[in-house]
Every structure is written in C-alpha cells, then in structure tokens.
Amino acid sequence: MATWTITEPRRLDITDDVVRLDVSLVAGRLSVVGTDGPARVEISTPGGLRLTVSADGGLLSVRHHVPRTWPGVLQPLWWWINARKFAADVSIAVPYQTAAALKLGSGSVIVSTLHADLNVDCASGRTTLLGVDGRIKATVVSGPIEALGCAGEIALDTVSGEITLADTAARRLSAKTISGALTADLDNPPHDSQITLETMSGEITIRVREDSDLGVELAAVHGRVTSAFPDLQVKGEWGTSVKGTIGAGTGRLRANAIGGNISLLCRPVDEDFGQAGPESEDTGPGPVEASK
Amino acid sequence: MTAVFSHGRLRLYLLKLLAEGPKHGYELIRLLENRFLGLYAPSAGTIYPRLARLEAEGLVTHTQAGGRKVYEITDDGRTELTQRAGELAELETEIHASVADLTTLATEIEQHVSGSVRDLKRELRDATRQIRTGRHWTDGRPWQRGARGGTDPGTSPADATRTAPVDSTGTAEGARADQTTRGDHTGAESPDTAGTNGSAAGDLERAVEQLTSEVRRMTRQGAAGDAQLRAAAAVVSSALTELRRLLRG
Prior knowledge:
Chain A: This is DUF4097 domain-containing protein. Chain A: It holds the Pfam family DUF4097. The complex is a heterodimer of chains A (292) and B (249). Chain A is mainly beta and 292 residues long. Chain A has a domain of 127 residues. Helix content of chain A is 3%, strand content 58%. Chain A has a 5-stranded parallel beta barrel with strand order 9-10-12-13-11. Chain A starts with a strand and ends in a 25-residue tail after the last strand. A 3-stranded antiparallel β-sheet of chain B has the order 1-3-2. Helices cover 67% and strands 6% of the residues of chain B. Chain B starts with 8 loop residues before the first helix and ends with a helix. At the A-B interface, β3, β4, β7, β8 and β9 of A face α2, α3, α6 and α9 of B.
C-alpha cells in the first residue's frame, strides 16, 4: 500500500493496477479521465486541507481530511467561510474500466471516457460528463449537469440546476430536476431504451431521431406540448398531454413537466453510412464536433 | 483539438487505425474518442466520407458483415502508411502532448462540453420556435398559425451573425442572404400552395433554419479551407442577386 500526503503541487504516477477510484474532496475542481495508460494523479492545488492519495489493492483513493466544523446550525456558515480556502485542483487519469465514486462539496466535477460505473455526488457545483459509457449516477443539489456523448444507463438528479444531455445513446436515462430546464438530444438510442425526464418548474426539450421506436407519453401540467411528430395525439384541456407511438414503439419515452412547456423535436437521420456521398459530410450530428 | 487533424491527417490516422486490424465505422469513432480522452469524437458524417474517399483511392476496402461495413486496409494503403511514417510519428507526438497535461485537459474538456451544449441548446431552441410558429401546433392553439410564421424579427440578426463566417462582408450581407432565401422559398412554393400562406411561411421558416444550421455545422467542422469559404460566400451573394431580381421584379 502506498500513501502520499500532499501539501504542494505534485504529479504522481501510480504503478499499481487501478480498478476502483474513490475521491472525496471538500471543494475545488476534480477531473477524472479514462486513458489506456497507467493511472496518474496530478494535483495542481492541494487546497488548505490535508490531502492524501493512496493506492491499495486496486483502489486508488484521494481524499481531503475534513476538520472539525462548527456545530449544528452554524455548520453552513462554516462552509460558506471556508470552502473557498480549501479549494483543490485535482486531475486523475485512470484506465477506462475503472469504477469511480466521486464526492465533492462544492466546485466542479469533470469526467471523461470512463467505461464503467460512475457515481458523482456533488453538493453545489457544475458537473460535466464527456463520452462516459456505463452505469452513471450523478446527484447534485445545486448546479448544472452537462453530458456529451454519453451512453449506458444514466441517472441524473439535481434540485436546482439545468440538465443537458447532448448526443446521448443511453439505454436507460432518467433525469430529474426540481427547478431547471431539461434538454436531451438522443442519438441512436437502442430499441429498448427507457427514457424518463421530469422537472417541476422548467422546460423540457427532447430531440429524438425520426426513425426512433418509442412509445411516447408527454405531460405538461401547466404548460404546452409541442411535437414535431404530427402523428402524436394531443389530449387535455387544462395542460396538455401527448400519447402515441413513434416507429415500432418498443422503447419508452416519458416526460413530465409541472410548470414548463415540453417540446419534442425530430432529428433527421444521418445518411446511411455505406452510401456516404459528398452530401453526408453535412449531416453529421453537429455538436459532437470539437469546438476548438 | 481538431487543429491536430489539419491537412488530411485524420485520413492518415484512420489508415493507421485500420492497419491495426479491420474495423467498422463506429469502432473507429470510438477509438478516436478514446485516443483523445473524449475531447474529439468525430461524427459519422466526418468519418464515412473520408473512408469512402480512401476506398475510392484504393487504400482501403470493405466487406459487408452483419449489416455493417467492415473496413480493411489494402497493400496500397500500407505502402502509403510507410511512406508517411514520419508524418504519422509527428502526429502521434502531438496527440500525446495534447493529453499529457491533465489540468489543462480538464479545462479543455469543460470548455468543449459547455460549448457544444450551448450550441445544442440554441439549435433546439430555434427548432422549437420554428415548430411553434409553423403548422405543427399540437395543442390546439390555432391563432398562432401563420400569424407569426413569416417573420420573426428576433431571429434574423442572430442567424445572420452565425452565417457570417462564410461571408467576409459580415452581418448585413448575411442578413440579406437570409431574407432573400426566405423570399425565394415563397416564390417557388406560392403556385401550389396558394391560400395556405401560413404553411408556406412555415416551410420557409424551416428552410431558412435548415440553411443556417447546415452552414453553421459545415463551418464548424472546419473541413473547408479559406478558398472554399470564399467560394461559398460568392455563391451566396450571387444567389442573392438572382433572388433580388426574382422577388422585387
């Protein structure tokens, strides 16, 4: 077992095999990327707390040691005063197949190209997921969640914050927010995909491929439903709901909004890969393209 | 990140990946994505035309397996790869360097995702507005139909700015192109859709949106060079002249 106590900026190369990653930070920025190389930990700011890194039997763990805070009702005040002081900047590279559990008090979490279970728990901050494929669970109290090119089974939950999923090919997707908009652009979801989107006071925007096979149930209690699929039937006087089928209807798409509108949009299908002519260069799913 | 893949280097890298064994398109996309830690995930629309071109040049060939095409490198392809070994090594070094510094990488990932997400939200918002102003009202509020279908003053300048990269003369020119394209559509459609002004306007609105989003997407893909962009600008302004003649006369 190897343990390091970090007090100044440092890079660590982890020689042990890593299959699990466990990170718990008080504040700051945490980034985890999957690579094909060995695990690395880069700490550019350790923050004002004791930060330890340890590798033991496949488990790589990075944690802040939280000191005694003020009792009871004064605790939030303590955090408010101290969180900025404790902000760390930690970047970790692990093999693709590493299961990760990430916990952060406040700050931002960035995860990319992991292909295993991922658990993100963030009290307040921005969560960014890129190209993650696996069982993804992110729970955020306040702050937005942005995911690009993710697949697998995704469960996102936030109290106040926006959730945006771009180019998602998830088999199971459940996204819930209390106050915040929900945007999901589904590309190539499997035929048996189960998609559930819920918000209390926010808009829901969903885009699915025109050749999707989905049973659709959309309900906006105080808003209206707009659909780009003319076959879907609209019901209801107060509020609106849409129920119907797109394609074979093997998958399921459900969206519920209490105070906002729902719109269901249609994404043109890319030209068949085999017949990629000069035209097809224009029809790629745009947002995947690197913007830099 | 795409800067790494300028001047036909993506093509070279595809050859390199295929030299490691036959692969289908999605595999190639996934491999590229992994190689760049998710920062560069080319779309099918980027990969397949390049594969098709490689095939036309005889550097790769494909076989049909289980409904998808599996691409394989040919001997000519291998020769090409050996010839350009130096270039490839350089590319590999650059790719490696681009992911070596994890802290910078994190910043890049964050910017990349939030940029893409912002673009997506804008695209979807435009699309939603279009459906609302068009004929696809599904909640039975017909007064919206047609009434606002033709013009939406809020959108035009924004669209124009986004079209602008193609056009060196800037916003004003883009805006005019935008408007005249709308006009063109009306002109073309009006004989058969006389009396359904609302739906013609909706069609128009969609056509304009399609124009904007496609141009934006193409520009963003960055495949076109300076000369091509200039040529595109020329096409737009000549179309504009033609349309002016058609609509005002």
